[in-house]
Amino acid sequence: MSILSNTECHNSQRDSCFQELADDIIYSILEFSESLFILRVCMRISKQWLRKALEIPLSYKFYGTTMVDHCYQSYEKSISNTINRSNIIMMSTESTNTVGKILENMTELSFVGVDMNTLSENNVIHMITQLKFRKKLKKLEISQCSLLSHNVKRLLSCENLQNLENLVLTKTELKSEAVEYICKSTLLKRLQSLNLSSNDITDVDMKMISESETLCNVTQLNLSHTKIQHSGIIALMNSPFITQLSTLHLGYLKFQSNELQTIVSNPRCNHLRSIHLQCNSIRTEGARILARSEFVYNITQLDLGHNKIQNDGVNYIVTSTNLKNLKESKIIPWK
User: Which residues make beta-bridge pairs with 142?
Assistant: First the structure.
């Protein structure tokens, strides 16, 4: 079966021996193709292939300035004319000007990830706020980049974020003022996933997060490797929106059995399906409390790795009738 070119595909007088592939077949081929191959080859085959290629979320990763310059010089025109929906992950080895030139051609990105060790935060914020996303950006990820509070405010006032569903700000040295901007932003009403791990988030910040109406639709919350203590967990458990949470990450917090008990003894937490408490100080007694809780029956994924749970604690988890829906668990006996 032959594949038609742009001209042949829409020529009513074309030879009858040519026949288009069905759309679902093309889509299936594209699903298992490398993003760069789709950009360089598939999008140029015909209008039919281009149309189906634009339905595929592409991942375009740059790992070095040389590679970026080569891609830009070789495919600038193709990228400018064809890319409508892509994922961009920018690494710290790229020059601002090169990345900026490429990004100017991306008009309907659904995901932008910025890992910037060397670029200034002003350049990071400038690139994100100046891109023309046509209000389709769904995920924004910034890591390893110091974000001053006024730049967080600037970022969260950008209309590009009004459809954002997933926000990741890890290792960005967030201050309480920046957290407050997040909690009060009017553009994050659709946010479903929030990751503020590896920041100096305190119990005061936790209280703001717990009371934020902006974050009322968040179902996935990651606060691992922060400075949250027991009072912060109490604030979270008292949140009017706690029933929305299905996934909770609280690893690397030096939590003990008391903090775990505060979580699993709360009847409003019975919607939790995935809980990650790795690298804390939870002992065997904590495992027993978890196993006997009547509010953990929806949990399907549990991570208690690298705690201080001994063999008896592992047995509590394994034999618990309240954890009968558990499908994936990580518990390493402490010796």
Answer: 114, 169
The model's pLDDT over 125-163, given as tens digits with 9 standing for 90+, comes to 777 787 666 556 888 888 888 899 999 999 999 988 989
Please tell me the chain's helix, strand, coil percentages from 3-state DSSP, rounded to the nearest 5: 40, 15, 45
Q: Are residues 220 and 157 in the same domain?
A: yes
Name the residue among 9, 93, 4, 76 with its Cα closest to residue 39: 76
* Bridge partners for 195 per DSSP: 168, 222
**Tell me: the pLDDT tens digits for 60-76?**
543 333 334 334 334 33
User: Please, which pLDDT band fits residue 59 given cuts at 50, 70 and 90?
Assistant: low
> Cα angle at 245 between 173 and 114, to 5 degrees?
35
Residue 70 main-chain phi, psi, to 5 deg: -65, -45
Amino acid (one-letter) located at 209 = I
Domains identified in the chain, total number: 2
Short-list 283, 285, 282, CA closest to 293 = 285
The 3-state DSSP class for residue 221 equals strand
Nearest one of 190, 187, 191, 123 to 161, comparing CA atoms? 187
Whether residues 27 and 105 share a domain: the answer is no
